[in-house]
Amino acid sequence: MKTWRTRAMTGDEMPNPESLLFPSSKDTSRPTSIRTAWRTALRKSKIQKFRFHDLRHTAASYLAMSGATASDISEILGHKDLQMVKRYAHLSKEHITGVLTRMNDAHLPAAKENDPSK
Question: What's the burial of 56, exposed, middle or buried (CB within 10 Å: 0-12/13-18/19+)?
């Protein structure tokens, strides 16, 4: 919203209204504010200290754990460089354990055969 307002006030070229995820019902060339709905949803679900922006981190993490490449995630989230992907994508310990287990099973079959827990 800040970027949108800044562009509107400075006369810079505005984004294509058809690309808006939440267009205003009153003026479809402008974004709508979802602040009230967001706060209501958080209050009703008793979720505290959670921002709408946090969903970007969740999306990046789920994409990474689903096999998306850093390049894929960068494109989907609109990042200009891959460093931002590192900042947004957080892999769970379970995911990392699974990746390492699959690597070990694929490349170190002798270790799997000698594992007493198997």
Answer: middle
